[in-house]
Known about the structure:
Elements: E1 2-3, E2 6-18, E3 24-37, E4 39-44, E5 49-54, H1 65-77, E6 82-88, H2 98-113, H3 120-128, H4 134-139, E7 143-146, E8 151-154, E9 162-167, H5 175-180, H6 191-194, H7 211-217, H8 219-230, E10 235-238, E11 245-250
Parallel strand pairs: 5-6
Antiparallel strand pairs: 1-4, 2-3, 3-7, 4-6, 7-8, 9-11, 10-11
Helix pairs in contact: 1-2, 2-3, 7-8
Amino acid sequence: MIFFPNAKINLGLDIIEKRPDGFHNIETLLVPCPEYSDVLEVLYADELSIHLYGIPLDGDPMENLCVKAYRLLAGIYDIPPVAIHLYKKIPVGSGLGGGSSDAAATLILLNRMFSLGLTDEVLAGHAASLGSDCPFFIYNRPMFATGRGEVLSPVEIALDDYRIEVVTPDIFISTKEAYAGVTPRKPEVSILEILKKPVEEWRGLLKNDFEESLFLKYPGLAAEKEALYARGAVYASMSGSGSSLYGLFKK
C-alpha cells in the first residue's frame, strides 16, 4: 500500500505556559499542506525492515518513527512483519511535521492492511504516544491544537482561494533550541478570534511566538518572510518551530 504523508503549517502559534512535565502548553491552528508530501509504501515481508530514500536522515533507521509506529501496533495487535519504504521530500527539522506525518501514515496503512478496524479516535490515541503532532495527521483536517499539541478540536476555515508556498532555508532548528528563546505568555487575543477576520487582516495580528527570538538569532529567516510578502503573499509566517516559512497567495 502506498500513502503520501503531507506536511502541515501552523496558523498562529502561542506558547502559553511551561508544564511541570517539562513540555509546554500551546495554542495553534494546524492545517494540512498537501502541496508538500513524502511517499510511504508498506509491504508484506518476512522480517521488519525500513528502506530510506530522498533527503538523508541521521541516526539509526530502525529508530525511525515509522518503525516505532509499527512496533507500537505490533505489540498490541500481533501483526506480522512488514517492509517500510520511505521517500523523504519534506525537509527535516523544518516545522512542517514530516516525521509525525510519516508515523501517522504508517498507523493508517497498517490498520488498513491488516483489517484492524481501528477508528480514527483509537489511532489518534496511539499516535499521541509517538509525538505531539502525530494525532493531527490521523484526521488531517484543520484542527485547533492545545495541550502539547495533541488535544484537537475541528475548525472550519476557508482557504480554498489561496495557495500555500513554502520556503525552507538551510537552517536546522531543534525543538529544544526553539523553546529556549521563548517566554511563555497568554495572548491578549486568541488565535481563534483573529482567524475570524479576513486573511488580509491577519498580518501583524496572527503571530508565531517562536519568530521573535529565532529571527534575532537567524536574520535570514526574517528576510525570507519579508520576501514572501514582497512576492505578493497575503499572509506569511514561520511554521511550527521553523525553519520553514510559508506564504498564502491568492489563486
